[in-house]
Amino acid sequence: MVFLSVFRDPEVYYKESLKFFNQAKEEERPFFAMINSHDPHRPFAGAEDEIKYFGHHTKPPRVYSPDEVYVPECLPDLPDVRIELAQYYASVHRGDMTVGRILDALDEAGFHENTMVLFLSDNGMALPYAKTNCYLNSTRSPYIMRWPKHIKPGSVSDALINGIDYTPTILDILGIEPIVGCDGKSMKDTILADA
């Protein structure tokens, strides 16, 4: 399944996801869907670079004003920084809306109870002293899981986990032999610790 992330529209993700999930349901087949969103990558919502990239401004569901944004301590509190952060926050919000609409599609197709959902990111915020560095704002990234009847809602772990652990973990959960020489390790026991 492939999505063109240039749409950046939560409703496009919803419609395409629902179509895919319904197809899996009709064919009575298990499925794997990797659904990627380009949000909150540059160009951020409302940035002039959007014109160059898309030919128009995308429309985020929520626009932030520069006055209402939090400026991380790693950045100078300057007007241009606040403008870019406001655009970044709008893009993050739209990314959140996209995830919500994909979950809506999963639920409507009847897969809520028996589907593991993972949300992860490859880095922290895409701003100086964050992305491509070893500062906390770069290395701290989401790894969120939902798996009814297996993972207790609201549970939190302080275990160190990385994207490299994804494949060994999924293979272990599915009862499939690990890939010889594959980096990372299964986090199955950590994930199911409070089940």
Describe this structure in words.
Strands 1-2 form a two-stranded antiparallel sheet. It is globular, with a radius of gyration of 19 Å. It has helices at 10-27, 49-54, 79-108, 136-139, 166-174, 188-191; strands at 117-120, 143-146. With 195 residues, it is mainly alpha-helical. The protein starts with 9 loop residues before the first helix and ends with a helix. It has 6 helices and 2 strands.
Key descriptive features of the protein:
195 residues; 2 strands; single chain; 6 helices; two-stranded antiparallel sheet; mainly alpha
The portion of residues forming beta strands comes to under 5%
Mean pLDDT: 89
Shape: globular
Order of helices and strands: HHHEHEHH
What share of residues is helical? 25-40%
Largest sheet: 2 strands, antiparallel
Structural class: mainly alpha
The number of strands is: 2
Low-confidence stretches: 1-5
Distance between the termini: 31 Å
Estimated radius of gyration: 19 Å
Order the strands across the largest sheet as they lie in space: 1-2
Number of helices in the DSSP assignment:
6
Short précis:
By secondary structure, the protein is mainly alpha-helical.
